[in-house]
Design brief:
The protein is an alpha/beta fold and 206 residues long. It has 8 helices and 10 strands. Strand 8, helix 6 and strand 9 form a beta-alpha-beta unit. Helix 3 runs parallel beside helix 8 and helix 5 packs across helix 6. The radius of gyration is 17 Å and the shape is globular. The two termini are 16 Å apart.
């Protein structure tokens, strides 16, 4: 049986925060700090006016997705790693975006020669990961994501899944400690490719 690789997109396959920050500065005169903190607390207005509220932050993200997704750039070696791993595993991209962004995300990934199934999700990823594992017949599964909250969710709902914590943005990675509920922290796709391939070759659950 083939393995199953369930992979996040932003800050795993595609750089997002650096481009979001540039757009905020250009379009809204907002400075965005890459310090691993809450998005709503990372924005300051250059003119000294009050910082955006949480509601305004969500509105800004809704403007970035899907209208500014073309700014996002590919994480080094991500495409090549997924292409190689797809020979031994089914690949699903599980991205926390609104459902209306599913088709734009598919088109975005196709533009980077990554033709994989895309599932959108809101909230914790444990339930959708468990559903995907069951759908594919309970294969050996590896989950890759940049947010510790999702590793905690997967550990709770699908504990047999191998969990890789990856933060591909270097300026963000230095501020983010390893996720306690991940099995390993790897921020580079060449190293992650080796680790993931070993899990599939061993054919054992976590």
């Amino acid at each position: 049986m083939k393995g199953l690789l369930i992979c996040d997109c932003d800050e795993v396959l595609l750089h997002m925060v650096r481009h979001f920050g540039v757009w905020l500065r250009e379009a809204h005169d907002i400075t965005f700090a890459l310090d691993g903190g809450d998005f709503a607390n990372s924005m300051t207005r250059s003119n000294g006016a009050p910082a955006p509220t949480r509601e305004e932050m969500w509105g800004l993200l809704d403007q970035f997705f899907p209208h500014e997704m073309g700014r996002q750039t590919l994480v080094p070696h991500a495409r090549e790693a997924l292409a190689a791993l797809s020979k031994v595993a089914d690949v699903v991209i599980l991205t926390n975006l609104g459902d209306h962004n599913r088709e734009p995300r598919i088109a975005q990934l196709l533009g980077h020669d990554m033709d994989y199934r895309v599932e959108t999700n809101q909230g914790g990823k444990g339930d959708p990961v468990a559903r995907l594992v069951a759908e594919f017949g309970n294969p050996v599964t590896v989950f890759v994501d940049d947010l510790p909250v999702h590793h905690a969710s997967v550990a709770k709902h699908a504990p047999e899944v191998h969990r890789v914590h990856m933060v591909s943005e270097p300026d963000l990675a230095v501020h983010m400690p390893p996720a306690p509920d991940a099995h390993v922290r790897i921020d580079d796709w060449q190293a992650a490719h080796v680790w993931i391939a070993e899990r599939f070759a061993a054919a054992r659950p976590a």
